Fold these 4 entries.
Entry 1:
Amino acid sequence: MIGITVTVDADHLDNIEAVGAALRLRGMRIDQVHDTIGIISGAVVDEESTVLESVPGVQSVETENTIQIPPPDADPQ
């Protein structure tokens, strides 16, 4: 699963819970709903992230980036 952040469009902010329910039906695990700013965060199977963009009320779907820093004692490249 990959972490994602869904931005809800302005027309659907009053119904953000309904947007979240539709996202769950399409396989998203909802971790947090930030109704004040219109953001829903969670995770989904990688292949399913593009399907979420078709949910009514979804403005955008962004995947989380993971940065891994080597330990201090690792050899430099």
Entry 2:
Amino acid sequence: MANEDYLEAIHRIMLQHPEPGSVRSVDVAELLGVSKASVNKALTTLKDRGLVEQSRYGRVTLTREGQEYAQLLWDCHRMLRHFLIEDLGVDPETADDEACRMEHALSRDTMARWRDYLAHEHGEPDAQ
């Protein structure tokens, strides 16, 4: 679960700053509110799983598999957040927190099916 948060954070940073194509671990630490040591520990696990690569200068990039999985996580987060706010009337801050927790409990298949269902029923969720 926590490693998925790191993967999603790397993806989100890359979306905000796509030009360099890599992310500094300090940026991930800032976004998640964790220590750089925590980021480095997670990066080791993500590297071992073949989801990220890290240069000798410490910059991190997602592998193809990492990019696909991170995109699925981010899409799921946005979808859940949108559903909670728009369909259930949950306040945005609570919806964001709960979407983050919920996305880790769903299988990849369930995430994809729910995303497709909501896209069909309501149109694509917003990018917030």
Entry 3:
Amino acid sequence: MNDLTEVKTQARRAAFARRKAAHEVALPGAAAHLSEVLAGYRGVPLAGYMAIRTEIDPLPAMEEAAAHGPVCVPVIQGAGLALKFARWSPGCTLKDGPFGAMIPELDDFFEPEIVIVPLVAFDRRGGRLGYGGGFYDRTLEMLRAKRPTLAIGFAYAAQEARALPLEPTDQPLDMIVTEAEVIEPGPV
């Protein structure tokens, strides 16, 4: 294990603890700021996610967005591969997917132009620490090579870190939305 891998492991461990504590005291309405942001992009193809474990839940914002345009959720195809996105709508039939996330039963895939990204930790420069599989980094790189793609990190405010151990392959977030605020990344 190299030094950066160990630093990332330690950063993830600390961030998971902060996220768990925030999740335990989260109030209803945590997705209100996300809904406000997405209202400015009505009709633009959007990818949300089905929350697992202690992730902040984007479902209320996804439900609102689905009334105005296509919404999808990520489907893991395999280790080392980019994500695919299956069309989702409120009340659609779901099945178990990899890592405990529910996915639509029908494989109606399309590519989003906005991706709501779950995360373990973020910083105010748009850095994101994920679970370590690189799925979102590969996917955002692929989507951004084709067209402008807005990556919105969605997290509890407690998941903020002062600085994160990042690599050149880590794709930056264009915006971070928490239950408390909307953050436009920039130098700190």
Entry 4:
Amino acid sequence: MPYFETNDHSSLYYRDWGQGAPVVFINSIVLSGAMWEYQMLPLCDQGLRCIALDRRGHGRSDDPGRGYDMNTLADDIAQLLEHLDLNEVTLIGQSMGCAEVSRYLGRHGTSRLARVALIGTVTPCLLRSEDNPEGAPREIFEAHVAAQLADRPHYNRMVAIDDYFGLASRWPEQEFISAEMKQWLVRLVLETSPRANIECFRALWLDDFRQDMQAFNVPTLIIHGALDHNAPLLCAQRTARAIKGSQLKIYEDAAHALYLTHKDRLNEDLLTFIRS
């Protein structure tokens, strides 16, 4: 069965499809590895081995009620790569997954990696402080937490649909985002443990990944939507400046859910990057 046990005895689920060079996907907050369906199937058909981890408290993985800090989540990635004995890995994150990927590099280095892709990244540091004036004020973080504690289904429906797809009426791709696709996304969100939801949100906002940026010494591709409401384009621009030699691709008509709305373009860019 595609499970492995972590050092704290949590059982984590992963999808492992195809054969060839390994590509490991790290999902967005409150979404499981199932979110990568429209990347994994096409890339498997291109001769790649695609693996997606269900973060603890997400999808089919255990909900241990602990370990939602970034260090533990990064260590979970390390244990997955060790469990499968993967090398020359392309490690791909989306949104919060980019923060976990960054912390993985900061804690474990790049000895198992060939390259990294960050999609809709929230790095390098979200919260405004004296030495991070470009961050968002704490009041915004506190308002998001309060909204989730008051009515998590409503909050996540708003984020997963209204904000996640952004200014969808301006996209030609909008006709391909069906009501059923949106319902599927909301269902994946609400399958996530409420404790994991809140604690991961806190970890994402309150941690600082600027030091981790220095650990990126493999080819790094950053892809971001110019219309992203969940992670402003400034996040990608700051991350690109912090990672020496990285490449930034901006999708001018995309928001945060570009892995769905712009899946064909994204898959082509990822495949080109992996084969470069």
